[in-house]
Amino acid sequence: xxxxxxxxxxxxxxxxxxxxxxxxxxxxxxxxxxxxxxxxxxxxxxxxxxxxxxxxxxxxxxxxxxxxxxxxxxxxxxxxxxxxxxxxxxxxxxxxxxxxxxxxxxxxxxxxxxxxxxxxxxxxxxxxxxxxxxxxxxxxxxxxxxxxxxxxxxxxxxxxxxxxxxxxxxxxxxxxxxxxxxxxxxxxxxxxxxxxxxxxxxxxxxxxxxxxxxxxxxxxxxxxxxxxxxxxxxxxxxxxxxxxxxxxxxxxxxxxxxxxxxxxxxxxxxxxxxxxxxxxxxxxxxxxxxxxxxxxxxxxx
Amino acid sequence: xxxxxxxxxxxxxxxxxxxxxxxxxxxxxxxxxxxxxxxxxxxxxxxxxxxxxxxxxxxxxxxxxxxxxxxxxxxxxxxxxxxxxxxxxxxxxxxxxxxxxxxxxxxxxxxxxxxxxxxxxxxxxxxxxxxxxxxxxxxxxxxxxxxxxxxxxxxxxxxxxxxxxxxxxxxxxxxxxxxxxxxxxxxxxxxxxxxxxxxxxxxxxxxxxxxxxxxxxxxxxxxxxxxxxxxxxxxxxxxxxxxxxxxxxxxxxxxxxxxxxxxxxxxxxxxxxxxxxxxxxxxxxxxxxxxxxxxxxxxxxxxxxxxxxxxxxxxxxxxxxxxxxxxxxxxxxxxxxxxxxxxxxxxxxxxxxxxxxxxxxxxxxxxxxxxxxxxxxxxxxxxxxxxxxxxxxxxxxxxxxxxxxxxxxxxxxxxxxxxxxxxxxxxxxxxxxxxxxxxxxxxxxxxxxxxxxxxxxxxxxxxxxxxxxxxxxxxxxxxxxxxxxxxxxxxxxxxxxxxxxxxxxxxxxxxxxxxxxxxxxxxxxxxxxxxxxxxxxxxxxxxxxxxxxxxxxxxxxxxxxxxxxxxxxxxxxxxxxxxxxxxxxxxxxxxxxxxxxxxxxxxxxxxxxxxxxxxxxxxxxxxxxxxxxxxxxxxxxxxxxxxxxxxxxxxxxxxxxxxxxxxxxxxxxxxxxxxxxxxx
Lengths: 301, 680
Prior knowledge:
Largest sheet of chain B: 5 strands, antiparallel
Structural class of chain B: alpha+beta
CATH superfamily of the largest domain in chain A: P-loop containing nucleotide triphosphate hydrolases
Number of helices of chain B: 24
Mean pLDDT of chain B: 88
Strand order of the largest sheet of chain A: 6-7-8-3-9-10
CATH topology of the largest domain in chain A: Rossmann fold
Oligomer: heterodimer
Number of strands of chain B: 13
Shape of chain A: elongated
Order of helices and strands of chain A: EEEHEEHEHHHEHEHEEHEHEEHEH
Radius of gyration of chain B: 32 Å
Strand content of chain A: 25-35%
Mean pLDDT of chain A: 85
Strand content of chain B: 5-15%
Strand order of the largest sheet of chain B: 10-9-12-13-11
Helix content of chain B: 40-55%
Largest interface: A-B, 26 and 21 residues
């Protein structure tokens, strides 16, 4: 487990990461969500040991970061490679740094994705480079993999291919991946646990679906002459209303901690039809961010 | 992985791309080929190591280039992130690169020096005995120069965040003390101090604190002759300075490596302390440099006084503040004001002002310095014991070579020293102001601002017991020049001024009489030669300086040593009765002057400031061939060879005169450069 305790990192007058504490559990995909400038990359670079925190500590499996660095592979959005180096040569280099590196798997995965391991990386397209480095990162054999905006700017097919690589590797071995992105779409089908950073601070973190268990969405049909404004006020008085949306007589309400009572109450309000619907991660986030002074729409594009 | 193995792996990793190796070995290979080619043509004045003026450039250039190649990753954010994200310590990457660059630099230098040494020892028998020592010393000094500049480059890159600022800082680092001392301190000293000639401490500081001056000194910049070059060993203080530079830079770089902020890569500086030091240092230097430049340009220093002091203070403070603000604009963070470091600004201005004040404040004590006791005194008086041409150079062009030579030659440690200290006591007390205001010598009076007051100038060096040297130059009035007779007439001074008195066992030497027009071989026995020298010694012993103002020499006896071939000239004055008597006995016509020769014509060339119509270039040449005109010229012309006391017996050199004399024996014409006797 990576434990981040009260990490603060300033760049002159700008506080990029402000007193962030976070625990990244083992064996799952952890998402780091935030707008540009939220502090995701700074936090990732600090965890990777590139930056030194002004305050706070990072421990890896209970050990200081310096001794735990060999368990971490950091994959930036624009990875560095030696001039003229090919995938094969980079794998060779990484093997010297990460003894668990599996070069055979690198070759196998690259061939699967039709990447020429002997071709210089400088001749690869952006998507091909990302795929190549993701292969290298997955095959490094480290316990933790930090990926910063690895899906940014990729077409949906390449992004999906890369996500599949993640999923396959997760099946093969137990490792922890921390994926930072400024778009929820990149993370929603990959990560269960997500932390949201905003202006250097941690807004929330945890398993969003688990938290959503106490939040219910109901789709209702009322009579056409129903005063929806009055209805909103009435529901708000009795139940913990997260979201209310009326489109004619069709009303959608999101309620917190209203299991069992919500449906009966809505029928009492003359709802002709009440149906509980499943929530998307987006709606969960909206529900979670409600009242936290964070405009979640910034990361929903 | 053990740390030692990890370090070794990373040294190998530092060699990726082989750029450093290619540059180091390639440069030295080219140097070896060029040196060997040159040595195959000439081994007398071609040096592959010490004595080669290209060597400091080579060492410095290679050091800086390899430092930039090795540590360039520190200036590239992406590459740095890549390395620092790997399971390796930042210090391991840094020091493995350091070792890699040092190895390639030093080994390639060793290879080049070794190859050149082997070649020259095979081709040059004279070099063979020095092959090991010279090659070894050449390797060590080149490696030393390389390491000094390698460390400078390394430190500059470590504290800077981008290539431009690193290069600029390197330039500042290399030039800083040379500018501060050479362009500021020396300018202030020469401007404020009336008696300034040179300050050895400043020269020493320049040599030790300016890396390139140190490199030049280490590689034998001032040694030209092969025997000296082959035996040259840098002095202990130079070696100590080079070691101090290397160790100090290494320690500071190690500290900087630990304090380096990765996130500031791309900025001008990555370490705030370095930013502050550089900013303050540059502001201070700019302030004092501008003050020196302004004072030099305006010429107010020559008149001295409060105006010059006020000007220096204002200019230095204003420029230091302006440069500080300018640097702040470059260095500041977005949004912060340019006056965020007020105390630093105040300190830079205050130190600049202090330096500008220190010089005029200390001028009086500098100018009136007199040691009282000294282990030796060196004296050079402009125009005394030098030919007219040299006197002209010394005064007009402020050429110091002859003065320096004389200061080296006229080193008085015995009775001459006591007399000199007695003579200088009053002069030093006047603090660079001539006492007597009577007009004097031919070229005098233009340098002190008071045309009538200065007869000539005396450069003096006080050699103190502690080994220190204090140079001064004093304006000398005519009265003071006359009182120099007390020094001139000491046996110690005469031994130097008349080296002929030191000749001994000259029986086999060749004696020639030269009256300024022609030379005549003297047929003398060994006994006669010894008698002549003895007579000369006696005459010189009785010589009084005042006599030199009365008459010009009759000629010279040129003594060419049979063993060494060295030539010593015995200046013979008509009042050297004993010498003249012996010379006449051997057939020399002492009284023969230019007018006794058959002068065919006289050519007089005159430079005119306002050229008359029809003449070009402001130069007018007249030819005199009529017997009457020639006879008139003959009466007043003196061969320039006899003009050996331009201060005491000044001749008229306003025209360039050449007399054409017919050589009767060969019927050829001799052209003799002449001057005109004063008042004729």
